[in-house]
Amino acid sequence: MSGASGAGALSEQTVWMLAVRDARDKRSFGLLFDHFAPRLKGMILKSGLGDNQAEDLVQEVMLTVWRKAGQFDPERAQVSAWIYQIARNRQIDLHRKESRPVPEALKQPEEDSPDAGQALAIEQETAKLKAALQQLRPDQREMIEKAYLGELSHSDISRQTGVPLGTIKSRIRLGLERLRHELKEIR
């Protein structure tokens, strides 16, 4: 499901989420569920909840993803960040409901939101990163996006694309070197 779907540089998960958002596509939701449910459960178990509670929370989070799919905006957040934020919020709600103290890992940082200058700097850095990604060779960009934005392992990418593992690693390494060169002024 790479560039052939017409989505260009979007991650596979983004393509699935957009199909859910725009067409209420149940197959795409199933793919999203299969991809994120085990990851969410692992994250939730690490916060100290039991297996049954974790399962219930994953179901609730994914139901929320289905119900609120219309709110997903790929310009504002990656699918994974959007879904993990929903899970995090549900965990906090659950802890409050059960009158438990919220674990440190779930607490919001004490500092206030970034000031306008920080927000502008982040936006500028994001724009530079997007521009730098577009400068990469398409094969390098695809591998970097699958690995870092699509959260796929090198082995998963190899299985998905049919490209040998060594070639994937080389493309990612060369692409990252080029990105470092393109982005050296940000530092």
SSE run: HHHHHHHH
Proportion of helical residues:
55-70%
Oligomer: single chain
Tally the beta strands. Answer: 0
At the fourth level of CATH, the homologous superfamily of the largest domain is RNA polymerase sigma factor, region 2, helix turn helix motif
Shape: globular
CATH architecture of the largest domain: Orthogonal Bundle
At the first level of CATH, the class of the largest domain is Mainly Alpha
What class, by secondary structure content?
mainly alpha
Low-pLDDT runs of 5+ residues are 1-7
Number of domains: 2
Distance between the termini: 35 Å
* Helical segment count: 8
Report the sheet-strand fraction. under 5%
Radius of gyration: 18 Å
* CATH topology term of the largest domain: Rna Polymerase Sigma Factor, Chain: A
Q: Whole-number average pLDDT? A: 80
Q: How is the biggest beta sheet arranged?
A: none
GO molecular function: DNA binding; sigma factor activity
Keywords: DNA-binding, Sigma factor, Transcription, Transcription regulation
Family: Belongs to the sigma-70 factor family. ECF subfamily.
Protein name: RNA polymerase sigma factor
